[in-house]
Design a protein that fits this description.
By secondary structure, the chain is an alpha+beta fold. It folds into four domains: 6-54, no CATH class; 73-135, no CATH class; 167-344 and 460-512, no CATH class; 351-455, no CATH class. It is 40% helix and 15% strand. The chain contains 22 helices and 15 strands. The chain has helices at residues 6-9, 14-26, 32-39, 43-54, 73-85, 91-100, 107-116, 164-170, 172-178, 189-201, 211-214, 217-222, 231-240, 243-259, 328-340, 356-365, 377-384, 446-454, 457-470, 480-503, 512-520, 543-548, and strands at residues 152-155, 269-277, 287-290, 295-307, 313-317, 347-349, 369-372, 392-393, 406-412, 421-427, 435-439, 524-529, 532-537, 555-557, 565-569. The strands form two sheets. Strands 2, 3, 4, 5, 6, 7, 8, 9, 10 and 11 form a ten-stranded mixed β-sheet that branches. Helix 2 (14-26) packs antiparallel against helix 3 (32-39) and helix 9 crosses helix 10 (189-201).
């Protein structure tokens, strides 16, 4: 080979690696198993990539087009347009400012820049509210330059301060800084990401609804700001966030939760996909089956992993392209290995989550798994011929009906999985046909494995609670990586709520929606003093729960307040 041949023989980038693998399969007619070994894929992945290539979903080369050699006007003024929109200026005012600065620009050019960045039109303002001067009363979000000692706020959202001790306990400000999130000239990464997380905890349906709470200066003080950032900044900021920062934050959060007794992974994980529907018409999103609509429609397919013991989500990914969905379970195993230094324990999921080829890879790696098997006609016929005496009766310790299933198990071979697997058939659980479980766990009792799979419904219940509590189905963006930040912050908010719930007697397993309605959604008075903040929460029906949890005696040092203290008062 001539010098430089290694560029083709040992591709370094993932896209070139995919290209060479597909060329070997389609042009050179090499076997999928041989290509999988050479390039580090599974055979199923090779077949998936080939199918994506034939359907036109894969594109490897960008065609160059002749055009102007100098930068177009849109490229030159883009940053200035976004900066002005961050101050809530409408299109005509933005065009006027840039023209005055020496670069003549039309309203249409400004509109095209904002539309390409995903911005919606600003609502029409009444005549007396138009123009920059009339909008100067809005407090701009910026870090506090001086502590506002002596200020008193009557706040409709004073209950949000109940979450500050949990934010301190989990060390969220430091985790965000260490995760590599971007900063802006005015706001740090903590201020921007912390604001988005706070909006999650306050159950704001979308970032565009921030104006409902941004006028409350007491909420800005929670994060050390003069006010919460407005819609434009938060939307623009979310476009700058990469998946690597979200993944890093989740890793650091999981490590911190383990130190607090959560996310131990001791009883394994429940895994599932959830399709978040997109309600717009113009979107590059793929069509996924949405159970709520009983059809496939444009949506973002998100992957979740739930710690079985604590029932909390420890991992989410909303940037999963179709060819990589089957291997997302491997991505989670790699993620958990980075967090703990060891592969995860038992992984439980349904039959649609991955392929037999990937299950074979998990077995080779020593990871235990359990999933459903589709009930084919041949399998059903075989089970119908099994004598009744060969089915063992079991008693399952669980709430509700169907606690006495009949179980029949045997070891079988499945095409695509090298080693024999254990098949557990279960009937007398309210279904016409037996339920089939397959697993590479050969030691645990069959009834215990069935009970464990029955508990898998916890992830569906928890996802339902997240959808209601954090408005996961209120998807307004058609950009998957933008949604990924939203799902990551949902995981963060869920764990912050869980830390609060652990302190409240009889609320240890309450949903985020219940915690918000009973405690967080409480008005009060916020009094700023030299050494900290005292929050006087107005009495409500559930105030005794807070008193029993010790909030009246709480005196917490808040790092982003430079060590100043947070205290609570409850009027008699």
């Amino acid at each position: 080979m001539r010098a430089g041949a290694e560029f083709f023989t040992t591709p370094s980038s993932p896209m070139q690696k995919r290209y060479e693998a597909l060329r070997a399969y389609v042009v050179d007619h090499r076997r999928a198993e041989e290509i999988a070994t050479a390039f580090g894929y599974s055979p199923a992945t090779v077949y998936q990539m080939a199918a994506a290539l034939r359907s036109g979903e894969l594109e490897f080369f960008l065609s160059s087009k002749p055009g102007p050699k100098s930068a177009r006007k849109q490229v030159v003024i883009r940053d200035r347009v976004l900066e002005l929109r961050a101050n809530d200026l409408p299109i005509d005012e933005i065009a006027a400012v840039i023209t005055k600065d020496g670069t003549p620009v039309s309203h249409q050019t400004v509109y095209e820049i904002l539309r390409a960045e995903g911005f919606e039109r600003l609502p029409t303002r009444p005549k007396d509210a138009r123009g920059a001067a009339a909008r100067g009363d809005t407090v701009k979000a910026q870090a506090l330059k001086a502590w506002p000692s002596g200020t008193v706020y009557d706040s409709a959202h004073a209950g949000a301060y109940l979450l500050v001790p949990e934010l301190v306990e989990v060390g969220l400000s430091e985790l965000i800084k260490e995760a590599g999130y971007p900063s802006s000239r005015a706001l740090s990464s903590w201020h921007s990401v912390g604001s988005l997380a706070l909006l999650k905890l306050l159950r704001q349906r979308r970032v565009s609804h921030v104006d409902d709470v941004a006028t409350d200066p007491a909420l800005g003080l929670v994060l050390g700001l003069t006010a919460l950032p407005k819609t434009t900044h938060l939307t623009t900021y979310s476009y700058r966030v990469a998946r690597t920062a979200n993944d890093s934050l989740q890793q650091k959060l999981s490590a911190r939760l383990r130190a607090l007794g959560l996310a131990t992974g001791a009883e394994g994980f429940n895994l599932d996909f959830h399709a978040i529907r997109h309600h717009g018409d113009d979107s590059p999103l793929e069509a996924n089956y949405v159970p709520k609509r009983s059809q496939a429609t444009r949506s973002v397919l998100t992957f979740y992993a739930q710690d079985h013991a604590s029932t909390e989500m420890v991992y989410a990914n909303a940037d999963v392209p179709r060819p990589e969905r089957a291997t997302e379970i491997v991505a989670f195993a790699d993620y958990w290995a980075k967090v703990t230094g060891a592969d995860p324990g038992l992984l439980v999921f349904d039959s649609q989550l991955t392929t037999y080829s990937v299950l074979n890879d998990l077995s080779a790696r020593g990871i235990t798994w359990m999933t459903l098997r589709k009930r084919g006609k041949k399998v059903i016929e075989e089970l119908s011929s099994v004598a009744d005496k060969q089915w063992s009766k079991a008693r399952i310790e669980r709430a509700g009906r169907y606690r006495h299933p009949h179980i029949y198990e045997r070891v079988i071979s499945i095409k695509g999985i090298d080693n024999p697997v254990r098949q557990i058939a279960v009937k007398n659980i309210g279904r016409d046909e037996p339920t089939l479980l397959i697993t590479n766990d050969i030691t645990t009792k069959a009834k215990d494995l069935f009970a464990r799979y029955a508990h898998r419904m916890l992830i569906e219940n928890e996802l339902a609670a997240y959808i209601v509590g954090f408005h996961l189905d209120a998807l307004s963006s058609g950009v998957a990586f933008n949604v990924d930040l939203d799902t990551t912050l949902t995981v963060v908010a869920g764990n912050v709520m869980r830390l609060l719930a652990r302190k409240l007697k009889r609320y240890e397993h309450a949903t985020p929606d219940t915690l918000y309605r009973h405690f967080i959604d409480t008005p009060g008075q916020v009094r700023v003093e030299d050494d900290g903040v005292t929050v006087r929460l107005y009495t409500r029906t559930h105030t005794p729960v807070l008193l029993e949890a010790g909030f009246k005696e709480l005196n917490v040092s808040v790092p982003w307040w430079e060590g100043r203290r947070l205290r609570f008062e409850f009027p008699p």
